[in-house]
Design goal:
Distance between the termini: 68 Å
Largest sheet: 8 strands, mixed
Strand content: 25-35%
Oligomer: single chain
Number of strands: 22
CATH superfamily of the largest domain: Vaccinia Virus protein VP39
Shape: globular
Strand order of the largest sheet: 7-21-22-20-19-16-17-18
Length: about 450
């Protein structure tokens, strides 16, 4: 018996008029049609819009604006000509100070709705450059035979295809202004259709592009890449498999990117594929806020969870008696140790451990810490919070890239572990996007 293939439900093509009621946590406008919630790209509260459906599911639908019938006071015209097609940004239609206010509102709402804790006193938001700030990125690469062009950049919004862009004004101009030239160079390679992505790593002075290659380049290919790198003051590397295979072109020196914290006399070196904050100006302000909030002295023993390459650990060690950094990625831990040696800091220890698993047998986990700093991934830190019953720190600073999991974890700290959420605030790490970077202080 032959089964008929199920067809995807046809979406309505006629535009629908709605009034935007609020914003979702990712910055999309929220409206309702026939009782179903609709999330609409580039729509702001109070605006009347006509939208078309882009996705429809049982419990919700998605859409995009086709006609703006009324305009919110916070709306501005996007600066980038690719906005709306490229998925790299989602907030360029919102005035800069309004972006901050919206993110603060999202944070407060998540604390209340998810964490069941009242929003605390808010810090003054940390702000920096709104454009040209991004120094780390993974860009897609695609050879389009019909156009005889290589696209370099980010995926289209809500689509798997690479957007056709020639520049990116949120990327640091070292790379953001060179996308067209980079695509043209790759188009001249024999392996132009065997390059899926480029890892961008820009330090204070150095720029490294790690080009993922599915086939080895020819000698002529390497010469083209070498010439491009020399012309644009970039180090071009090849990556044949995982991040540990990244290596400079034959005969070229290995360039190690670095960023400095001049006020603290610290310099961090990192490998191109390693995690670092994308916005150096906000990172410096964020570290200063952490140090001010923890108010460290030589009597403090600090635990830095999800420490990465020591971004917070080494600054804290300048003031505390002892700092222990823990991170799940062993290469990052080894690099953190190297950064400690590079900066002549001896009162730190680094350990590799999966903080989502049981850590009770780890020697470092059986010590006492009076202050704890944590900066987890988007998944948050709920598993490791159970160990706070034993450590019983007097002060906790939590840096988060996801207000939902911060709110969930705040609920655990406040409602289960007896802490008070004293203060919180947003940090504009990702202007022009819906990403909300935040910081919170908890005390016993």
């Amino acid at each position: 018996m032959t089964r008929k293939r199920s067809r995807k439900k046809q979406l309505p093509e006629t535009p629908v008029k709605v009034t935007i009621e609020s914003l979702a946590h990712d910055g999309r406008g929220v409206a309702h049609v026939d009782g179903k919630v609709i999330f609409i790209d580039e729509a702001l509260p109070g605006e009347e819009v006509e939208f078309i459906y882009t996705e429809s599911r049982k419990d919700y639908a998605e859409g995009k604006v086709v006609t703006l019938l009324s305009r919110a006071a916070d709306r501005v015209d996007a600066l980038c000509s690719h906005y709306g097609v490229c998925g790299g940004c989602s907030f360029q239609h919102v005035e800069s100070s309004a972006q901050i206010r919206i993110k603060q509102d999202i944070l407060a709402e998540q604390f209340k709705r998810i964490g069941k804790v009242e929003s605390p006193e808010l810090w003054q938001p940390l702000e920096g450059p709104h454009w040209g700030y991004r120094r780390k990125a993974r860009m897609g690469v695609k050879y389009v035979a019909k156009k005889n062009r290589v696209l370099v950049g980010f995926r289209e919004r809500r689509h798997p295809y690479l957007a056709e862009i020639d520049s990116c004004i949120v990327m640091h101009p070292t790379v953001g202004t060179k996308l067209l030239a980079l695509g043209e160079m790759i188009a001249g390679l024999t392996i132009r259709d065997k390059i899926p992505q480029i890892e961008v790593a820009i330090g204070d002075e150095q720029c490294v592009l790690s080009i993922r290659v599915l086939e080895p380049p020819t000698d002529a290919d390497k010469e083209l890449m070498r010439a491009f790198g020399h012309e644009h003051n970039m180090s071009l590397c090849l990556q044949s498999k995982g991040p540990d295979t990244i290596a400079p072109l034959d005969g070229e020196p290995e360039v190690i990117p670095a960023y400095a914290l001049p006020d603290l006399g610290l310099e961090f070196k990192f490998k191109p594929a390693m995690f670092t904050q994308v916005n150096y100006e906000i990172n410096r302000q964020m570290i200063n806020r952490v140090l001010e909030t923890l108010n460290l002295d030589k009597n403090d023993t600090v635990l830095d969870l999800f420490c990465g390459l020591g971004n917070f650990t080494l600054p804290m060690a300048k003031f505390a008696g002892r700092v222990v950094g823990v991170e799940g990625d062993l290469p990052l831990v080894n690099h953190a140790r190297e950064n400690a040696r590079h900066n002549g800091i001896a009162n730190v220890e680094f350990y590799a451990a999966d903080l989502s698993k049981d850590i009770s047998s780890q020697p470092w986990a059986n010590r006492k810490y009076n202050k704890i700093m944590l900066d987890p991934s988007r998944a948050g830190a709920s598993e490791v919070l159970q160990h706070f019953k034993k450590w019983r720190p007097e002060r906790i600073v939590y840096v988060s890239c996801n207000p939902s999991t911060l709110a969930r974890d705040a609920g655990i700290l406040v409602n289960e572990l007896g802490y008070k959420l004293v203060k919180a605030g947003v940090m504009d790490m990702f202007p022009q996007t819906g990403h909300v970077e935040s910081i919170a202080l908890f005390e016993k």
